Amino acid sequence: MKKIVLTGAAGRLGSYLREPLTKLCDELVSTDIKDDVGTLYAGETYMQADLADFAAMDKVIEGADMVVHMGAFVDEGPFEQLLGPNFVGSYNVWEAASKHGVRRVVYGSSIHAVGMYPKNEFIDTEVAHRPDTFYGLAKCFTEDLGRMYWEKRGLESVHMRILSCAQVNNARALGSWLSYDDLIQLVTRCIETPVTGFAVIYGVSDNDRAPVDNSKASFLGYRPKDNAEQFAEEILANEPPMDPHDPNHMCHGGPFAGVDLGNSGLAGMNVVDDRKEN
After folding, report:
1. Which end of the chain is more exposed for a tag (fewer CB within 10 A), N or C?
2. Cβ(90)–Cβ(209) under 8 Å?
3. 66-69 and 3-7 beta bridge pairing
C-alpha cells in the first residue's frame, strides 16, 4: 500500500501502532489534535488535525489506501464533549474516505457498545447494541455508520470492539485484556485480509476467562497469542470478592456500566499510561 492514515496517533494505543504500520505501507500519515507526536519513524509524517473539522480530515485522508481510525475522546463525559470528536469525527472520517476512494477503514470500537450485557452471557459479534454510556453510544453510532457506508457506497470497514488494552491490574482484566502485541496483530489482520465487507471483531487476547466469542470473525485470521491467566494468582489474592449485583462487576462494560451518564468511567479504573516512547 502507498498510504495509511492513523488517527489518534498521540494516544496510548496509537503509540504502539505507529511503527508497525510504517512497515505495511510506503507512507504512514499520523494525525492527532496535539501539536506533535515526537520523533517520527522512517516513512511516517505527521499532520495535526481536528476530527471534528471535515476540511482538515479531508486533507489528511486524500490519497490514502486505508484509514486506521483510533482517534476519539476516550472516556465517558457529557454528550456535548463527545459530540465533536466521537460522533461528528466518525462521520468526517467515513465521508472523506468515501470521497477519496479509500478501500477500508479499521476502527477502534469498544466493548462499551455492548457494555450493559451481563458478563455471564458469552456474547458474539452479532448481538444487538447495548451501550453503557454516551461513549459506548458513539461506538454504536460508528459501527452503524460503517455498515451503512458499506451497504450504500461499498466502503469496507472492520470494527474492533476493544475490551481493555492496558496493564492487567484488576480481576476484570483477567478476561478482558488485549496485549499490545495482540493489538498489533489484530490491526495488521484487519488491514491485510483481502476482503472484509463490514465486520465486527472483539479486541481481546487469548484469555482463559475471555467473555466474548470471535468465531464469526475468524475469517480475519486473528489468532491472539497472550493470556492474562499468568497474572491471575497475584490479582485474585489481592482483590476482595466481587458483588454480583454491582454492574461494575457484573456487566461487560465494567466501571463504565456503573457510572451515571456523563461521568468518567476511567476514574474508576487504574489505567497505567505506559505509552511507547520512541
Report:
1. C
2. no
3. parallel
User: Residue ranges per domain, the chain?
Assistant: 3-268
Q: What tens digit of pLDDT does each residue of 39-81 get?
A: 999 999 999 999 999 999 999 999 999 999 999 999 999 999 9
* Cα 24 from Cα 36, distance rounded (Å): 22
The model scores a pTM over 0.90: yes
- List, for residues 158-208, the tens digit of each pLDDT value: 999 999 999 999 999 999 999 999 999 999 999 999 999 999 999 999 999
Classify domain 3-268 at the CATH topology level. Answer: Rossmann fold (3.40.50)
Cα–chain-centroid distance for residue 214?
Answer: 15
Q: Is 135 a catalytic residue?
A: yes
Among the options 46, 107, 117, 135, which is catalytic?
135
Q: How many beta carbons lie within 10 A of that of residue 117, not counting itself? A: 22
Contacts by residues 125-128 (CB-CB < 8 Å, ≥ 24 positions apart)? 125/161, 125/199, 125/200, 125/201, 125/202, 125/213, 125/214, 125/216, 125/217, 126/200, 126/216
